Structures are given as C-alpha cells and as structure tokens.
Amino acid sequence: MSDLEAQASMQSKIEKIRCDACPVMCFIAEGNGGACDRYANHGGRIVRLDPLTIFDRRVAAGDQIKPFLGADWDGGLGHGEDVFVTAIGAGTTYPDYKPAPFIVSRELDGDDFVTVVTEAIFSYCGVKVKIDTDRHLGHEGAIVRRDGEAVGLVITSEYGSQMLSLGGVDHLTGGSKAEGRVTCDTLMQLCNKQAVELTIDDGASLVVQAGKPPIVDDRVEERMRVGCGSATIGMFASQWLGLVDEVVVVDDHITGVVSEHQAGKVLDWPDTGIKILGRRSTPGRYFQVAQPGLGWGGTDIEDPLTILGPWNAKKGAKEGLRLLMVSTTGEQFAYFELDDDLVPQPKPLPDTLRPSVDLIAENCEPALCTVLFMGGAGGSLRSGATRNPVRLTRSVQQKNTSVTSGGVPAYVWPGGGITMMVNVLDLPDNAFGYVPTPAIVAPLEFTVRRSDYIALGGYEEEIRSIETAAREGSEYGADSVVIAPNDRTVLTGSGEAAD
Ligand code: SF4
C-alpha cells in the first residue's frame, strides 16, 4: 500500500468506528449499519439496533411497552417471578472473556438467582426440520439445496414425517463462500419463521416454514397420515366388517391387507385370495409394494391395482367380491368388484363405505413444518458467563443451571458440552440473527442460584438488578421493550428447565 493509500485508509477509519461485537470487526460510518444489520453507528457510538426484549407477565399478550421511552410505562419492573430479561437484542460480547452484556439478579421463591444473558454466536448450529407428509421428498442422505447450494440432507424419516437436517459447521464453513452464505441465510430465515424454498437432489421441491403446511412440488400438504397402512387396518378393521370383503391400505412403508392382518383374523374376516405384489413382512403387512413417490400413500403409484397380482379362487376369490383400496390419509380411495374373470372392475364408492374413508381423513392431523434450532453453546461463549468455563458446563449437566433461548426452555443433550435444541415457534418473532463469518446469532440465557454462580467463577461484580440493567442497558445502548411471555416461556429459572 502506498503512503497516500495508507493515509486515505487511515482517514476513512477515523471517520468510521469499529464494531467489535463479532470477529468481522466492521468499520461503520455515522448513520450506517454493520454487515449483519444488527449494529449501527449512531452519533459516533455503536448501538444494537433491536431493543432488549424483557418478558413481563403483567403485560397483556399483544401489548408491548418501551421502557424509559414509552409514556405509558411506570418505569418499574415486577418481581423476579413476573419478569425475565431475554437475550433478544441484548448484544454479544467479543472476545468471549468479556462478561456477558447482561448479568441480572432475580429473586425467585425467596432465593437469589442470576441470569446471564447474551446473544450467542453459533458456528456449530443447524436446524432439524420435521415435515408432516407421507410423500417421498428424497432418499435418505440426499442433498438438500437452496439456490443450488448444498445446505443439508434428508435424514431418517419419522412416523408420518420426513426429516431434514440443515446447516451445521461443514456447510457454514467447510464449503465455498456461497455455500456458507446461503446456508446461513437459510438457517436464519427458518429460525425467524420465514418461508424457504428448497430442492432435494432426485427428489421434490419444497417450501418450508415453521408452523405452516409444507408445500411439496407446488402442492400444499393438508393432512398428516393417520398411521402406516398396517396401523390404519388395526384402527378401522371393525368398522369395515360386513360392509366390504377386502380392504387394502396403500402405504410406501407398510401396506395393510385386512383379511390377512391380525386385526382381521381376530374378527374372523374370511380369506379373499388377494395377492399383493410386495415383500411380505408378517401376515397382512407388506413392504415395498411400489417405489416411493408423490402418489398413493407416499408411493409412486396413481393406479392402486398395480400392486395387486392375480386373485386366487381356491383361497376365496369370487365374482362380485368387494374391494376397498385407500391411502393412509384417505385422500385417495377406490372401490372395485371382481368380475367373472376375477379382475377388479372400478365402481362408485358405496355410501356405506364413505364414512370409513371420511374417518381416516378426520383422524389425520394437519400437516405442518416444525423447525428446531440446534446449536453447541459449550464453546468459548461460556467465558462470558464464568471465568472457569467447564464449571458452567458441569452445572448445566447437573441441572443446577437452566438453559433458555429467548426465555424458552432448551432441551440440552446429555454427554459433553452444552448442545441445545429449541422449537423456533416458541420464541418471539425475529429472535435470530447472523454474522457474516458466517454464523447464526441466537439468544441464550443461563439461570443459576447466585451462590452457585459465584462458586462456578461468575462475574459477581457485573451482577445488576433487572431494573438497573434495563435502565442502564449495555455498552450497545439502553433501548428495551417489554412484552408478554408466551406459554412456553419459563420465568422461574431454578434447576432443570421446565417444559
Ligand atoms: S457483522 Fe455485525 S456484529 Fe459483526 S462487527 Fe459487523 S456490525 Fe458488528
């Protein structure tokens, strides 16, 4: 760099000020925001742009009050049981050995507690997405993409739901710059309850949004299946008895056949001579009747007869035999009667069978997407809570310290570290942010008895009352907002996080 360039660079740095809330260390000009849009230079001072969010049970849901700025607020905060300082808008300290922005004391049940409040930067984090649908979204292990970039993969499906694991340190840091940026955007938008379009290699395209029905290949999913095909037979066999001679519940995983199934046997259901083209598991339960897909029961079939072989007259097949075929959501159904060649011929669904099909549909729950944020809080950020980080980990593991995210109790995985999970729907909107390292910024609070906090090496001299903390703010400003907590928010902070 020439002298002139160095001088110009120095001049520009003098006019700008540096944000040190994350490793990016933005130089920010007066009136501008930093790269993450969370901090800005206001009047020559770096401030956090979102207000600190405080929960107060005395505030009616839907109302929010700006303390110290709002005329309606009396300036007082209630007892510890009523009030909780979340990390939303609290700001981050960097480097980590600086004490967390807010370390507040609270009295709960006559005991002194301390809550350590910080917006934590998670390089090791991701989301687990549960998508309630039978439809085949992609094979286990298939890559999930956003804008062509790999952001995660399809993982083991659960009962009635397909699962994705998105993000993680390898996608955030281990690929190209574009992959990291797109992964970070995807995680933040999903955590902030926004809709995200994804594609799965050799699979479906999706729109996923926490708390909303999934959209699979432009079609909104309405129903989560009542159960697998076998379970559906088990649930409804007695309702079909006498109304129809055979029922097949088509399912990609376990297709059920009532005449062979134990549920039918118990009811003395007569044999029908049916033949299912699939791998028989146990009586009346068949695997692999077709390929996975977007058709009947998560298979690729549109014509259910394709899963049937020839009917056997010696085992009960006869002209006029009545057959109901239905999917696990009741969305697809067809009724047939065997002709004199023992070939099923389609017929209108008899009125007597309609209620049973409707009952399957009625027993389906609405299909939704669920997004769980999962992150490792066991790293360097512990230094903002205590000078002896491993003691915090041990205290969490011993359930002496509760972990919340935006006031919501987090599930902490057993074993080493502080690996936590939280349902993003339980948090207030826009509780998550990012830094372009790239990493996700998530609210994090540790609550522990004051005596334990001091014993584990906490910053005793930084402890403030909630009122003082709310009035003074942090180095990044004193703007705060008071809102009603939601049902899942924990305001008592002792011991194991309540659920
Ligand atoms: S990215 Fe945000 S937190 Fe990081 S230095 Fe820039 S403004 Fe500050």
Question: Helix and strand layout, with pairings?
Answer:
Layout: H1 3-15, E1 17-18, E2 27-28, E3 39-42, E4 45-48, E5 52-56, E6 64-65, E7 83-85, E8 102-108, E9 111-122, E10 125-132, E11 143-146, E12 149-158, E13 161-167, H2 169-173, H3 177-191, E14 196-200, E15 205-208, E16 215-216, E17 219-220, E18 223-224, H4 229-240, E19 246-250, E20 255-257, H5 262-266, E21 279-282, E22 285-287, E23 322-327, E24 333-338, E25 344-347, H6 354-362, E26 365-366, E27 369-376, H7 389-397, E28 402-405, E29 408-409, E30 411-412, E31 419-423, E32 433-435, E33 439-449, H8 450-455, E34 464-465, H9 466-472, E35 480-483
The chain binds iron/sulfur cluster.
Task: Explain what this protein looks like in three dimensions.
With 499 residues, the protein is α+β, with helices and mostly antiparallel strands. 16% of the residues lie in helices and 32% in strands. The chain has nine helices and 35 strands. It has an eleven-stranded antiparallel β-sheet. Strands 8, 9, 28, 29, 32, 33 and 34 form a seven-stranded mixed β-sheet that branches. A seven-stranded mixed β-sheet has the order 21-22-20-19-23-24-25, covered by helices on one side. The longest helix has 15 residues. Iron/sulfur cluster (SF4) binds next to loops.
